[in-house]
Amino acid sequence: MKENIVCMVEEQAKRLDNLDAFRYKCEKTGSYKSISWNQLSELISSVSRSLISLGYGFADNVGIFSDNRPEWVVADLGILGVRGVTVPFYATSSRQQLKYIADETKMRLIFVGNKEQYEKASWLLENSETVKKIVVFDSNISCDNNKCIGWTEFIQLAGTNQFQDDLLKVKSEAKPEDLATIIYTSGTTGESKGVMLTHASYIYTFKIHDERLKVSKTDVSACFLPLSHVFERTWTFYILHCGAINVFIENPREVVNLLPRIKPTVMCAVPRFFEKTYDGVQLEISKWPGIKRAIFNWAICVGHKRSDYLSKNAKVPTLLSFKYSIADKLVLEKFRKVFGGNIRFMPCAGAAISKAHLRFFHAAGITVCYGYGTTETTATVSCFKDDVYDFDTVGSVMPGIEVKISPENEIMVKGKTLFQGYYKKPLDTEKVLKDGWYYTGDKGYLTENGDLVMTDRIKDLMKTSVGKYISPQKIELLFIQDNFIEQILPIGDGRKYVTALIVPSFDMLKKEAKCLGLENLSNEELVSHEKIIHFYQSRIEKIQEEFSPYEKVIKFKLLAEPFSIQNGGLTNTLKVRRNKLAELYSEMIDEMYA
Predict the structure, then answer these.
(1) Which pick of 272, 284, 337, 544 has the fewest CB atoms within 10 Å?
(2) What CA–CA distance (Å, rounded) separates 205 from 203?
(3) Which residues of the chain have pLDDT under 50?
(4) Domain with CATH 3.30.300.30 in the chain
């Protein structure tokens, strides 16, 4: 088989024929429909031939601006089928973000999803230097000019056997080193850069994942993270490589409600997903009577003990296995049904996650395969093994990948999954690619067992005015384990001491406020109330008992509004944009140092 993503899918289609490849929720009926492997292969071919009919082909950059849906992946693979390059946009991208990427990549065609995305793309037609045509996935949108075409009409451009010879010729010329995609990083610190990845990088990624993970055609995956991000996109390609079924969730807010219906066996998620789920569980059990709470806590405790044996690949003692079977029947089995009841494991990456959260889900029988990777490494650099893992690490380095630590403690990566550089940014590329090694910008170290520990983004480390270096990640991970803290932004770079902006977990706080005699107060009234501030002060003092004096949060402000994509505080992958938040709350921060 050629080292080509589309060839891989076509080979699977021949083998799996009429089995389901994709499932998706029908908007009109609410029921789930499926696309077989044969249908998928035909759709990809149609997209490729339609692109050829419009004059698109080798090295043409084509955009996709949509939420997750089957058409997203079909369009992606159709673009790759003509040796084109897919340039994904986040579904929430602004007009200016669209324009920046479209202009830099000289994009002429863009696929769009819903009405809002269509309107932004239509603005591009008038304001971009290069965009000339839009293809719309949503059948409810009527195209009102000749620069726009609906998905069904676009597919029909392929004809019956028209352009088939052209397509076969293009495929025969395909090479492993062909560029497959340019993925623009979400930009937590500055201007986003286009990461160039080849077909060969992806194919090698699948190969090394096969050596670490066990996924087969019997598996069902739920696709809810943005396909525009390297994590979900690479995982989706890998699911195709394994012949498994991918179920699309267009609105990520619906994921918790849909999982019992989808019943996935595998799915990838980011730490924020687990943190929010954990917070929801804690809120729910806080309402239970004492005996029921005690049984739940006992079950989790038993799960912890069992998990400790499993993480070392050690035999679980007979008595503990018996206790676990009771705990599972009474509590844990019911908890897993929140995830559909069939989860085997869940890859997790994209940010730091606390050890407490990881241990909780493993105790409950949800195996979180935590790992580390970057867009520039085609996702995974390291992850937990099936049989041995350490919750204090981001897992063992993937087979075929080399990792070493620089004298400055920077994680360096070498291997066939590395990117080709930043699009049209040779100077930026030279800064991070040296002698075949990618300098990640992340600080970390390797344990005696060869596991990787990622401690912080080097750029995120805070240096106080008295010269002390502080890890904001350490502070964040400890603080968000508190059930009353939803989000936190530590501040201290260039300052005399550490302060923090804290977003309370308002569901938990309102329950506590009632006990304090503070009922029916708005979020704004709660965060400014003296009793609430004192309540948080006492919790913070307890959290940081073991901190060094220079690490301790000396002052804090409670916020009524959470960090979000909408207010610019989070990236599209839910990472905190520290600089943006510091700018947004600059006056409040300055008050803490007055």
Answers:
(1) 284
(2) 5
(3) none
(4) 461-592
